[in-house]
Structures are given as structure tokens and as C-alpha cells.
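Lab notes, practical 5.
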Amino acid sequence: MPEIKLYDYWRSSASYRVRIALHLKGLAFECEEVNLLERGQQAPAYTEMNPQGLVPTLEIDGIRLTQSLAIIEYLNDLYPNPPLLPQDPLERARVRQLSQVIAMDIHPICNLNVVQSIVDLAGGNEAIKPRWMREKIRDGLVAFEGLLAQFGSDGEVCFGSAISLADICLMPQIYNADRWGADRSDLRNINRIAEFLSEQDAFRAAYPSNEPREKT
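Output from the prediction step:
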């Protein structure tokens, strides 16, 4: 088995995605906490590894990778079972389409640094933070729900009949939606899928409250 070390923060959506993928692949890994609230991601020792100063960073057999989707696709190439992307080019594009709605549209504008900048621009008005998070997460999930309907996704997972990268991206966003109180009561497809995924071992093992570390 490879030696795998994940530098993450327990409540980071991007880190959460990678933990799910590692558990799905049945890969043992060590976690090292990078405390975002204490600016651990800005420490010189960490930015030397990851110049962006973001989590996660994955070390695997002497190779270092950043960016959650790049990490997950690399793991999927190395360990193809269970596959996290379909073989068919169009189906693979659909799964990436769903994944990127979350990872490239919702996530960046709800990033801790971005939201803090918005608070600062609003004169330090902290009350704007939960409103921003609720609205932007809700808007993104409504779009995701629309794509699920468009793709005919009426089963237990986001696309087709197997867990994919799209499911890995969805569940951390559900965690954030619930944390900030974003309304998802009318998102029938998302709620059905989330209920199923929340009972799967890999997703349960990766869930933030189940991470065996002290929380901040």
C-alpha cells in the first residue's frame, strides 16, 4: 500500500472531498491538520509545499498534489476501482459538469477568505456573512438540481447507477448548506441522493464530525 498523507482542515469542503475519495478507494492515510482559523495555511513551511496556501495537499509515495479535483482524478487513475468517472466520454463530461458546478462555482465564492473580504468591504458587518452563504449556496444547489432533472437523474446517485465524482462534490456542499441554514427543502433530487449517500460507509467515515481529531 502507498504511504499517503493528507494535509487538511476538518471543515474544509475540498479536504472533505478527498477524504471521501480515499475511503471509497479503500486507501489508508494519515491526516495532518492545517488549522485555517489560526492561519496555518499561511505558515512558511506550508506555503513551501502549497504556494496557494490552501487545503488540501496530498503526499503519496513522494509525490505532492494540490487541488481536490486533480487529486481525486489522480487517485482514480492510479486505483481505478471503484471508478469515479464513467468510461463513456459524454457521461464523463456530464459528471464533471455536475462536479464543477460545486467545486468551481459555489465553492470559490463561499471560500473563507472571500467571505471575509466581503465582510471587510461591508465595513466589518458580520451579519452579512450568513446571508451571503445561504443565498449563494442555495443558488448553486438550485442550479445543480436543475441539471439533475435535465440529465434524468432519478436514482440514488447523481449520475447513472454508481457513485461518482459528482457525489463526492455534492455531500460536502450539503454539509455547508445545513451548517449555514441554506434552504434545500424543495430540492427533491438532491435530498434523495444525500439521504442515500449519508448512509454509505466511505461518506460516513469522511464526515467532519467523524474525523478522529480535536475540532476547532
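Observations recorded by the TA: The domain at 89-202 is CATH 1.20.1050.10 (Glutathione S-transferase Yfyf (Class Pi); Chain A, domain 2). The mean pLDDT is 93.
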